Amino acid sequence: MSAVTKSRWFAIASAVKARYTIILLIGLSFLLFACSTVQDTNIRTPARELYNQAVIASEDQFYTEAEELFRKLSTEHSGTQLATLAYLQLGELFFKRTKWDDAEVNYRSFLIRNPNSHLTPYVISQIISLNYERNRYGIFIRERSFDRDMEPNRKIIQEYQRFYLLYRQSNYLEDVTELLRNASNDLAEYEFVVGEYYFSQKAYDSAITRYLHLLKNFPKFERRNQIAERLIDAYENNQQPDQANSIRMILELQSSQST
Asked: Other CB atoms closer than 10 Å to residue 70's CB: what's the count?
């Protein structure tokens, strides 16, 4: 065999070897990709399956398991519709277990991610309801108390204004309006007690501020006449007879019109 023939044979053999090497590398790459895909599928449960498992656990009252599954869904499948719906379901779970802070956080997370949902009126009504329930105290007989934290009542008023502005045709309006009425009365009672405390301490400026706030912001409060009379007393004790006479004239005018 001549030197030229040997050279050509060596070149062909090298080309064939290189070609098989490339094919082998492609095959190995495909095999590795396929293996990694199978492993990822095994680790990451599909969103629909996770959601169904969580709903079943919730319906069977396995609330801790349901919570874990909904949290996993919202984390592993973030940005999907089911992940967004998981926040609503978490809100419902915590509401059932009277975990008001956690319920409100998840309800609001749902609203942030899906503000135009047809479920928005329901979610806002739930936020109003849980803030109403926050002020119930007692073990055997749970009753609301106006001398506790008033922040939930303020939230009710704020959320109701939003609800009434956007969803006044909603079926939930009647229920949330009743909650608003009770929350407003509790808040007014609280403000009145604070005003009475200032009056008893002869801090008449502070008492006057509270009484005026009540008359201005709680027009349906049943103690309005009593507040007005206390306001007259506070003005007189604070050496403000003109203001006292003005309130007295208003009371007399209202009395004459009602008879």
From this structure: 29
pTM of the model: 0.72
Please measure the distance between the N-terminal and C-terminal CA atoms of the chain and give it in whole angstroms.
134
Q: Where are the beta strands (DSSP E) in the chain?
A: 136-137, 143-144
For the segment 32-83, what is each residue's pLDDT rounded down to a tens digit?
A: 433 433 334 345 689 999 999 999 999 999 999 999 999 999 999 999 999 9
Backbone dihedral angles phi then psi of residue 135, each to the nearest 5 degrees: -95, 20
- For the stretch 140-185, pLDDT in tens is 444 555 556 789 999 999 999 999 999 999 999 999 999 999 999 9
Residue 8 has pLDDT above 60, yes or no: no
* Residues ≥6 apart with Cβ < 8 Å to 191: 210, 213, 214, 218
Cβ–Cβ under 8 Å, residues 107 and 114: no
| Amino acid found at 255 | S
Contact 100, 131 (CB under 8 A): yes
**How far is it, in rounded angstroms, from Cα 186 to Cα 53?**
42
